Amino acid sequence: MSEGFALSVIVPVWNEADGITATLKALQDIRAAGHEVLVVDAGSPDGTADLARPLCDRLVVSEKGRAAQMNAGASEARGNVFLFLHADTRLPPSALADLDRFFHSRRSWGRFDVRLSGGRFLFRVIGWFMNRRSRLTGVCTGDQALFVRRALFEDLGGFEPIPLMEDVEFSSRLARRSRPFCVSAPVVTDSRRWEHLGPWRTIFLMWRLRWRYWRGESPETLSLSYRTDVRNARH
């Protein structure tokens, strides 16, 4: 890696005991290369913190909420590039080299393409549309492992403390500063949410929420609606 490049991977977690060990073991090469991994737990009652502690550089305790947790992690981070990684997402083998290229580019932020883990052909189609939408709009979601230079993150004040759409809101602000640095090697995100609710039902829920968000509904209202929709979809 090039001199001067220092990466902080920030992983917000809540009740991730079933998968956090595998997630963090996949990041050990990044730590071995001299970069850091921070896990931000919001008081998970399932033992997530105990499992994460020996496999990360710092375990940060935060109030619950992905935006608050990611901001808390960034406040403790030492790197000059922040990467925000969901606990159910895996980086590609080329991630460090891709991020090093970003560091030496003129872009201020970026994201990876995404692929869903499930074997169904429909999941490949969904991933293609997610990536295509992101390239057209310059906006991304948290599943795409957003990364940003520390200076810009601090200049923008980090994520808005909202209960939903924090990734879309933040990347919309980032896109006004520069186009994203797009990495075509995909991160792989767990398709369990799509499998539990059904892919078509999940697509409908997500697009309806985004449409309502762009029409100006508050993230608080959308968060309540999302929780209700998910509960109803499971019955």
UniProtKB/TrEMBL annotation:
Its main location: membrane. SUPFAM superfamilies: Nucleotide-diphospho-sugar transferases (SSF53448). Gene3D superfamilies: Spore Coat Polysaccharide Biosynthesis Protein SpsA, Chain A. Keywords: Cell membrane, Glycosyltransferase, Membrane, Transferase. It holds the Pfam family Glycos_transf_2. Residues 8-129 form the Glycosyltransferase 2-like domain. Coiled coil: none annotated. One of its GO terms (molecular function) is glycosyltransferase activity. It is found in: Cell membrane. This is Glycosyltransferase family protein. GO terms for cellular component: plasma membrane. It comes from the Bacteria. Transmembrane segments: none annotated.
